[in-house]
Each structure stands twice: as C-alpha cells, then as structure tokens.
Amino acid sequence: MTEEHEAHPRPARLPETPVPPIPDIDLKSELASNQFSHFRTQLSTHRTALSEHRTSLSEYRTDLSGDRTELSMRRTGMSFQRTRLSADRTLMSVLRTSLSLIGFGFTIFQFFGKMFEANVIANSHSARNLGVSLVVLGIAMLVLGIVYHLQFMAGLRHIRKELVDQGLLHGESRFPPSLTLFTAIALLGIGVVAIIHMLT
User: Fold this and answer.
1) How far apart (Å, rounded) are the C-alpha atoms in residues 143 and 146?
2) What is the reported pLDDT for 166?
3) 3-class DSSP state of 178
4) In the chain, what are the domain boundaries?
5) Is the dihedral of CA 150, 155, 157, 158 positive or negative?
6) CA-CA distance, 84 to 73, in Å (whole number)?
7) How many CB atoms within 10 Å of residue 172?
8) Cβ proximity of 50 and 66 under 8 Å
9) In this structure, are residues 45 and 17 in contact, taking their beta carbons and an 8 Å threshold?
10) Is this structure's pTM higher than 0.85?
11) 110 Cβ neighbours under 8 A, 6+ residues apart
12) With 70 as the cut, is the pLDDT of residue 94 above it?
C-alpha cells in the first residue's frame, strides 16, 4: 500500500444488502396502502445507505485528488528545472562551436602571419582574412547565443512567477546563476581581445 493510501484509508466496503423484496399485497385489502408505504420506507432506507457510501467514496477521491495535485505541482517545478538545464546545454553547444571558430581563426591568422614573416610564403592576406572572418563569426554566434539564452530564461522566470502567484506551483527551488552563461561571457571577452589584437 502506498503512503498516499495510508494517509487516506479507503472506506470499508458496504456489505451487500439485497433490495427489499416486493411484498405480496392484496390490493383489495384495507392494509394495502400501509404495506406499500412500509415497502417504500425500506427502499428509501436502502437508497440512503447507498448514498452515504457514495458520499464516503467521493470524499476519499477528493482526498486522493488533493495529494495528486500536490504531486503534480512538484512535477511541474522539476520540469521548470529540467527546462533551465536544457537551456544551459543549448548554450554549451553554442559555446563549443564559438570556441572552435575563434580558436581555428586565431590559429590560422597566427600561422600564416609567421610564415609570411619567415619569407616562406609571399602573401598571407587571404589566409589571414579567413582567420579574422572565423573569429568574427565565432564572436557573432556567441553574442546571439547569449542574447537568446537571456531572453529564454527571462521568459521562463516570468511564467514560473505567474504560476507561483496563482498558487499552481510552490516555487521553493530557486534558479541559480548559470555557470555556462558566465563562461560564455568570459569567452566573448577573450574573443573581442583576440580580434582587436588581430586587427591592430
């Protein structure tokens, strides 16, 4: 038996009492009306017992429904946390791609620049422009990823606050600052420094 059922015990099963049998009544007798009235009283008592049992079952269902509502609110709260972590994972994907673009672009720029300085190649402008383009692309992608993440999280927090205010969600668990967001901002700073160094 689950804790939910232990907290709210089910009403005992109503003993099966047969419907009062229809009496043999002599319609010509003076007592016929009294006999019919007595039979109707027995039927009414039987219906009353059934009605009370239905009421007990209805209260039992109401109690269980309250517990299910509580569990549903808890599940919704955990769903918000999972959505937040999913947004973090999306930003991580953007972060990895941007890091690759910035790293490759800076490496290409430096590599062909050193080869030009060592007179190994006569012209390095095309390769160095490719490096700059990759770094700029990585920075642009990172900026868009950060802006999208901030907008999404602001919307998620707004919806969560509305549900908490309406009493549909407990809102006990907080949304901690995103470490991935801080890392993305730091990488954005590194990318900006790199592009400034490359252009100057």
Assistant:
1) 5
2) 81
3) coil
4) 73-199
5) positive
6) 17
7) 8
8) no
9) no
10) no
11) 131
12) yes
